[in-house]
């Protein structure tokens, strides 16, 4: 007789649930904030350029610390770093929700970015170690990627609901029960693996240089609206930011244990995929930010309507991430799928450039959201696979961290440029006596046009640098960023 005794649940899958819960909280926060920006602006008195710092403060800390956080996981243990990140993120969420002034919210968002970097940087490594068998590993990463996409979808809608029904403070308070539960479960369910020890070195100097470069660069761009692009203030600070970046590169070439070994860029696909991604994300973060303001300030949408307006993008990404994009990559090859996806994104942005003052959703916004959503869903999995395909097994974790880093840094820099140029155009037109709706719309059009130009440059990089993955290449499993 067949033994029908029920076997205990595999604890690895319970641990995966905890990792997914942590990722859900972080992804949820990244999208939920966009929808609530108009309400935050009204309540705390942010300027339009200053409002960008609610997003930038998070992105700078997140992107600047990802590589260092991943290395710390190797040194002191991935579980320890993951739990520490959850604690920091949860406490910072409470502080964000309690903020009563712009400076307090921006500071708390920076701390949130630190926590998000700590947790995100080590998650993929833990999944790969828990599921070494290729079939199980593919399934585990598929579940993880789907949760990330679902978090983006939920965040857009939930942000509108919470802001409309309660207040914007609750978009941060919602993280607290998730974070507390994730910390308690993580301490019990995630297996602990000792790190290699702090003697391995963490390249703190490199982390300080790259983080300072990004922070100063974004600050310089945002302040260019006040001081002027050709002013001594802008030129001197910009030169310092570039010098810090050069110092980081020199440090990586000479350090015994560099934060980012330069050898990874010998692969055309690693270099090309990251170059294309930084341009693509630079355009897209600004589009979401300014698209939200266009709908609120020009079209008069409330928070819930804004969340619903963006929903086709999130649903499209989620639907493609379930497995359809992987089948497209297998059938046609990642470079072709990437080009089609970025082409759709470019079309969506060019349509957005023509959005009028009295725009209607079905006629003017839905034709933007659908190609953007499908384009994202096709482009990012292809980019992830290409970026990882050129990495050696020893550099797989590093390549994954690099992909996350270029996405976050690209978002921070792109948002700073687009928000600043849009505000400058609007301010100039208002000074000429142009009515406010028309002045705002013109500023948004300029930003959307710059976004389209950035995506077009990403297409050029993809065409000239990226090459098909050889049939014999065994690409490490990528982490999908949304």
Automatic annotation (TrEMBL):
The chain crosses the membrane at residues 12-37, 49-69, 81-100, 106-128, 140-162, 168-190, 202-222, 228-250, 271-297, 303-325, 337-357, 369-389, 401-423, 443-466. Keywords: Cell membrane, Membrane, Transmembrane, Transmembrane helix, Transport. The keyword NAD does not apply. It is found in: Cell membrane. GO terms for cellular component: plasma membrane. InterPro entries: EmrB-like, MFS, MFS_dom, MFS_trans_sf. It holds the Pfam family MFS_1. CDD domains: MFS_MMR_MDR_like. It is a multi-pass membrane protein. GO terms for molecular function: transmembrane transporter activity. Residues 15-470 form the Major facilitator superfamily (MFS) profile domain. NCBIfam families: efflux_EmrB (TIGR00711). This is EmrB/QacA subfamily drug resistance transporter. It comes from Umezawaea tangerina.
């Amino acid at each position: 007789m067949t033994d029908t005794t029920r076997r205990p649940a595999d604890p690895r899958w319970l641990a995966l649930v905890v990792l997914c819960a942590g990722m859900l909280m972080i992804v949820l926060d990244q999208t939920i904030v966009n929808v609530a920006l108009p309400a935050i602006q009204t309540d705390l008195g942010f300027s339009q350029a200053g409002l960008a710092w609610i997003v930038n403060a998070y992105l700078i800390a997140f992107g600047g610390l990802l590589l260092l956080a991943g290395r710390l996981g190797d040194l002191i243990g991935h579980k320890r770093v993951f739990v520490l990140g959850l604690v920091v993120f949860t406490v910072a969420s409470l502080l964000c929700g309690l903020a009563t002034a712009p400076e307090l919210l921006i500071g708390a968002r920076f701390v949130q970015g630190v926590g998000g970097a700590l947790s995100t940087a080590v998650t993929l490594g833990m999944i790969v170690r828990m599921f070494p068998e290729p079939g199980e590993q593919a399934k585990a990463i598929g579940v993880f990627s789907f949760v990330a996409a679902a978090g983006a979808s939920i965040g857009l809608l939930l942000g509108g609901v919470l802001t409309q029904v309660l207040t914007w403070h609750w978009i941060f308070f919602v993280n607290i029960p998730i974070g507390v539960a994730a910390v308690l479960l993580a301490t019990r369910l995630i297996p602990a693996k000792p790190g290699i020890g702090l003697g391995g070195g963490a390249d703190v100097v490199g982390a300080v240089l790259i983080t300072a470069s990004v922070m100063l660069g974004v600050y310089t761009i945002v302040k260019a609206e006040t001081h002027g692009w050709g002013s001594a203030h802008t030129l001197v600070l910009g030169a310092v930011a570039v010098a810090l970046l050069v110092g980081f590169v020199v440090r990586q070439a000479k350090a015994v244990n560099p934060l980012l070994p330069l050898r990874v860029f010998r692969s055309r696909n690693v270099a090309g995929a990251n170059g294309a991604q930084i341009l693509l994300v630079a355009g897209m973060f600004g589009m979401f930010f300014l698209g939200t303001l266009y709908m609120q300030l020009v079209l008069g949408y409330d928070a819930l309507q804004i969340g619903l307006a963006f929903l086709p993008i999130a649903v499209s990404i989620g639907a493609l991430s379930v497995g359809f994009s992987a089948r497209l990559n297998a059938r046609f090859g990642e470079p072709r799928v990437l080009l089609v996806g970025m082409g759709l994104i470019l079309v969506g942005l060019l349509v957005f450039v023509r959005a009028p003052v009295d725009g209607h959703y079905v006629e003017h916004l839905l034709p933007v959201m659908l190609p953007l959503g499908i384009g994202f869903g096709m482009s990012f999995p292809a980019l992830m696979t290409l970026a990882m395909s050129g990495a050696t097994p020893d550099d797989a974790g590093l390549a994954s961290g690099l992909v996350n880093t270029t996405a976050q840094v690209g978002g921070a820099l792109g948002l700073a440029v687009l928000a600043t140029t849009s505000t400058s155009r609007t301010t100039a037109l208002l000074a000429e006596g142009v009515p406010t709706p028309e002045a705002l719309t013109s500023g948004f059009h300029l930003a959307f046009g710059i976004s389209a130009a950035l995506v077009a440059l990403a297409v050029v990089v993809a065409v000239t640098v990226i090459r098909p993955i050889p049939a014999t290449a065994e690409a490490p499993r990528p982490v999908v960023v949304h």
